[in-house]
Design brief:
Layout: E1 6-7, E2 32-39, E3 42-50, H1 61-65, E4 68-70, E5 73-77, E6 83-86, H2 88-101, H3 109-122, E7 134-143, E8 156-165, E9 173-177, H4 195-210, E10 215-219, E11 227-230, E12 233-239, E13 242-245, H5 257-268, E14 273-275, H6 280-288, E15 292-299, E16 303-312, E17 315-318, H7 326-339, E18 350-353
Parallel strand pairs: 1-3, 9-10, 9-16, 13-14
Antiparallel strand pairs: 2-3, 2-8, 4-7, 5-6, 5-7, 6-18, 7-8, 10-11, 11-12, 12-13, 12-15, 15-16, 16-17
Bound molecules: pyridoxal-5'-phosphate.
Length: 356
């Protein structure tokens, strides 16, 4: 289907005013955003408008009851100056799986891509060059009924805005496996990229921050024993040459695009990779017997984030120096080379955004 997207460009671009030498993450926003409204069972009023505040009714249902879902992906440029996006079809697929769980309408894939293509063409100049830098893309969907009562909303907004970013974690991370707080359990919303999963994490993360850890390593909600994932990243550990990552089976883990790509690369390289339950005790034992080779988080924001140490109760399991991390270093290098078009994209992971 061809959606009629109205374009209203800003007359006052902020591009020249922003400091691209100090981007950080998620602080600067590009000039435009895509907006669509859902009402009466269908999407309409497709528009690209100057990035600005949105009017909001005080009873807007999503801010009371949390019917929201979001995505995160990145655009970069290859050597030919073309805009490339990494596996975006995975993001729209996941957006719609999250939406289904939260009783929200799907965003048609062709609408998602027309909006993305057109917005990225308009924001072309906002895509920063340079190592680790990119234009972060944030599509999201939220309920806008003006009504105080809990039921499926009949109105929604779908928005895509973008933000030029540097890499997410500049420092190596220390993670703490909490045996107090939990994120997800079977039957819950762990697999959905929805606001509540993050809201419940903020207080626990602040507590561990005070103890010198940057991120939480979530353990399962029932036994508080099996590893799930890290804040905004999926978890991988290398024990005695074998890579292990928690499986998606119970629906308690966010099915990451980076996770999926890491698994595909490892299989291709004939490195053993197991998707299964892994307990924090297994990691402790591996550490104590000198077999804990590597551990890292995988996610769009940071790509591969090597873990320096894992805290649990009163213990801390320290990992080998970064230069000895053959697997995470190789993955980091391969993924960045694929994402920027420096090595051949044999998996067909890159979508080249055609000029419109
Ligand atoms: C987004 C996210 C990830 C990583 O997913 P990617 O698709 O690789 O970016 C992992 N865990 C959580 C909780 C997330 O929100």
């Amino acid at each position: 289907m061809n959606y009629q997207i109205k374009v209203n460009k800003t007359t006052e671009s902020r591009l020249a005013k922003e400091d691209f030498s100090d981007l950080g993450f998620g602080r600067i926003f590009s000039d435009h955003m895509f907006v669509a409204d859902y009402d009466n069972g269908e999407w309409g009023d497709f528009r690209i408008i100057p990035f600005d505040y949105l009017p909001m009714h005080p009873a807007m249902s999503s801010i009371h009851y949390g019917q929201t879902v979001f995505e995160g992906l990145k655009a970069q440029k290859n050597d030919k100056g073309e805009i490339i996006v990494f596996r975006p079809e995975k993001n729209v697929e996941r957006l719609n799986k999250s939406a289904l769980r939260m009783a929200m309408p799907e965003v048609p894939e062709d609408l998602f891509f027309q909006a993305l293509d057109q917005l990225l063409n308009i924001e072309n100049e906002w895509i920063p060059g340079g190592e680790g830098r990119s234009l972060y893309i944030r599509p999201y969907l939220f309920a806008t009924d003006e009504f105080i009562g809990i039921r499926r909303s009949s109105k929604y907004k779908f928005i895509i805005f973008t933000s030029p970013v540097a890499s997410y974690y500049s420092e190596p991370v220390k993670v703490y496996a909490s045996d107090e707080y939990v994120r997800a359990f079977p039957g819950g919303t762990g697999f959905a990229k929805t606001a509540g999963n993050y809201a419940r994490a903020i207080h626990p993360v602040e507590e561990i921050n005070k103890r010198g850890y940057q991120q939480i390593l979530w353990l399962d909600g029932i036994h508080k024993k099996f590893i799930q994932e890290i804040g905004t990243m999926n978890f991988f550990v290398v024990i005695d040459g074998k890579v292990i990552t928690p499986s998606l089976e119970e629906g308690t883990i966010l099915p990451g695009v980076t996770r999926d790509s890491v698994i595909a690369l490892l299989k291709e390289w004939n490195i053993p990779i197991e998707e299964r339950k892994i307990s924090i005790d297994e990691v402790a034992d591996a550490h104590n017997s000198g077999q804990l080779d590597d551990a890292f988080g995988a996610g769009t924001a940071a790509t591969i984030s090597q873990i320096k140490a894992i805290g649990y109760k009163d213990d801390e399991f320290t990992l080998p120096p970064f230069e000895e991390r053959t697997i995470s270093n190789r993955l980091l290098e391969a993924l960045s080379a694929i994402k920027t078009g420096k090595i051949e994209d044999t998996h067909n992971w890159l979508r080249v955004i055609k000029p419109v």
